[in-house]
Amino acid sequence: MVKSISTEVKKRNLHSCSCDSIMSDGLPIQPHTQILVLNNSYEPINITNWKRAIVLLIKQKAQVLSSRVIRLVNYIRIPFAKIVARTPSRAMIYKRDNNKCQYCGATRHLTIDHVIPRSKGGLDTWENLVVACSSCNVKKSDKLIENINMKLARKPFAPYNKVQFTLSYAEVPEWQEFLFV
Ligand SMILES: [Zn+2]
């Protein structure tokens, strides 16, 4: 145990040089905030907490672009499935649909509707979930829209990149320029 602690201290001392340069002008990133991580290609790949961001900087795996943005030194390949959330949260569906009923445009008494009802095998996917007001939800019930006089404002879609999707709604001015890299 003692040995492992001293090894840890040694490891830290090895890094002290880069720590000092990182800390010399105060923290280069804003503490207690979420930090955007860009791939080496500037593509947004993650939003992380500031402590993890500091670790990446100390390990020299990333460089600071601004107080809320770091960029990886090396390009990393990320499987598509990791970038797009397969099962969206309710909040994500509300955001994608701009908090509007996708059948009538109402902005109050909103719920989530399965376009193809669960009872007919509809899944909890980006392509099958839309925002609907409670009256449209009741009207549609477990029917298919082809069979009733209801129409979707647009075809429900999965955002290409979940991080970009989150960015587009985050109120962090420093993140906006990386939205459509
Ligand atoms: Zn409606």
In short:
The chain has 181 residues and is an alpha+beta fold. Helix content is 34%, strand content 17%.
What does this structure look like?
By secondary structure, the chain is an alpha+beta fold. It has seven helices and six strands, in the order αββαββααββααα. The longest helix has 22 residues, at 2-23. Residues 1-19 have low confidence and may be disordered. The structure holds zinc ion. Residues 101, 103-104, 106, 132-133, 135-136 line the site of zinc ion.
As a whole number of angstroms, the C-alpha radius of gyration is 22 Å
The biggest sheet, with number of strands, parallel, antiparallel or mixed sense and barrel status, is: 4 strands, mixed
Q: Helicity range of the residues?
A: 25-40%
Work out the number of β strands.
6
Low-confidence segments: 1-19
Order of helices and strands: HEEHEEHHEEHHH
Q: Would you tell me the structural class of the helices and strands?
A: alpha+beta
Mean pLDDT comes to 83
Strand order of the largest sheet: 2-1-4-3
Distance between the termini: 47 Å
Shape category: elongated
Specify the number of helices.
7
Bound molecules: zinc ion
Strand content: 15-25%
